[in-house]
């Protein structure tokens, strides 16, 4: 457990980087898939040439998120056990629901009806994405409790940005709006939404690692 607390934020960064790179690396080997219009889960479709790589990659990325949870809880436990638990729940929901479940339960776009695997995949993705969206809001409240106005303001801005882009992504999924050019780019809005969801996590991990190094330097100077 001490190892996870020590290296947890490194695991968190690795999880984000590997998750972010997934569609762009695999897209090289699947040029038929239009990145601007297709959602990322289609990389794991039964007819995808990169299906196995996508499924394995998703599970591995999810595992890195899960390995980061002890460090995340330890960092915010002094401020609030409840909110630290919610932060862990948010990242855990994404790591398990939207990464690991994606790898274990793929979709079949050719099937007109949802089968069990598609149901689990879509429900897990929905819960995980909700955790993704709420994470910066939880950090905003945590830093506000710690009376860190600068950090709380930054996470509030990141939360508003991620919600705004997520709203456009949600509108793009509505069939009634597909006639408008801006909403036809479903894949683009999904990827952009994920980038804004990654930013609070990356910023947190970098801040925690920077603070840890500062503490170590201070101890050495004593």
Mean pLDDT: 89
Classify the helix fraction into a percent range: over 70%
Main beta sheet? none
Structural class: mainly alpha
Spell out the key features of this protein:
mainly alpha
Q: How is this structure best described in words?
A:
This protein is mostly helical. It is 77% helix and 0% strand. Helix 3 runs antiparallel to helix 4 (81-104) and helix 5 (116-145) packs antiparallel against helix 6. The chain is globular, with a radius of gyration of 19 Å. The relative contact order is 0.13.
What's the SSE blueprint?
Blueprint lengths: L1 H27 L22 H17 L1 H8 L4 H24 L11 H30 L3 H24 L8 H4 L1 H36 L1
In short:
The protein has 222 residues and is an all-alpha fold. It is 77% helix and 0% strand.
């Amino acid at each position: 457990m001490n190892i996870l607390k020590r290296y947890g934020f490194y695991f968190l960064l690795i999880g984000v980087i590997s998750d972010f790179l997934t569609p762009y690396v695999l897209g090289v080997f699947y040029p038929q898939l239009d990145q601007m219009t297709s959602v990322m889960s289609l990389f794991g479709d039964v007819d995808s040439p990169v299906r196995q790589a996508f499924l394995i990659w998703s599970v591995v990325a999810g595992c890195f998120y899960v390995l980061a949870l002890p460090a995340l809880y330890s960092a915010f436990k002094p401020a609030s056990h409840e909110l630290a638990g919610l932060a862990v729940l948010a990242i855990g929901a994404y790591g398990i629901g939207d990464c690991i479940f994606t790898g274990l339960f793929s979709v079949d776009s050719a099937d007109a009806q949802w089968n069990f695997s598609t149901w689990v995949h879509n429900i897990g993705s929905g819960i995980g994405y909700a955790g993704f969206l709420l994470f910066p809001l939880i950090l905003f409240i945590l830093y506000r409790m710690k009376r860190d106005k600068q950090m709380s303001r930054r996470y509030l801005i990141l939360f508003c940005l991620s919600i705004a882009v997520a709203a456009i992504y949600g509108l793009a999924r509505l069939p009634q709006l597909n006639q408008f050019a801006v909403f036809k780019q479903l894949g683009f809005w999904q990827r952009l939404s994920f980038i804004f969801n990654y930013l609070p996590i990356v910023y947190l991990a970098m801040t925690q690692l920077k603070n840890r190094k500062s503490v170590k330097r201070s101890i050495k100077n004593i």
